[in-house]
Amino acid sequence: MNEAALQEAIANPQNIGEMADADAVGTVGSPDCGDMLRLWLKFSEVDGKKIIDRASFQSFGCQTALAVASMATELLKGKTIEQAQNLSAAELGAPLGPLPPMKIHCGQMVEGALRAALNASSQDPAPATPPTPNQPSGNLAESLVAAPTTAGRIKISLLPR
Length: 161
Ligand code: FES
Prior knowledge:
The structure is a single chain. This protein is of the alpha+beta class. The protein has one domain (3-122, 139-149): Sufe protein. Chain: A, CATH 3.90.1010.10. Helices cover 35% and strands 18% of the residues. It is built from six helices and three strands; from the N terminus they run H-E-E-E-H-H-H-H-H. The protein has helices spanning 3-11, 63-75, 81-85, 89-92, 104-121, 140-146, and strands at residues 24-29, 36-46, 49-60. The protein has a three-stranded antiparallel β-sheet with strand order 1-2-3. A hairpin with a 2-residue loop joins strand 2 (36-46) and strand 3. The protein is globular and about 40 Å long. Residues 30, 32-33, 35, 61-62, 64-65, 105-106, 109 line the site of FE2/S2 (inorganic) cluster.
């Protein structure tokens, strides 16, 4: 694992925050550690192809998940849907190099959020109803408050701004 790349991503994370005008959102929680991550995508069209214009994320997870999500949201810019669908967790966090075994799920959480967002975006037409706790798209922290949880089961780490 590339420690310098990890430290740089932690010190200067990219694309953190809720995206109010997103076209798709995906949320995952890790059964391994209880961490959560939400990814937003905004699409545009270039030469008749739908591409990812920008991506953002919120994470209540570890520093590795934060780093992979930061790198992934940069990597996704300009990718077609097909290209994004084929990206693995290792590719999304490529600058970090191979993750140690106990951290592999951190990258997979980012991949899972991406897949969830892409799957949601392929289900046209998009629902016009506002999000519910079971189909969240807004602020991740607010969803955690709204969702029925057992106190103490979700570890929350505040992210740097
Ligand atoms: Fe669970 Fe990294 S996301 S330890």
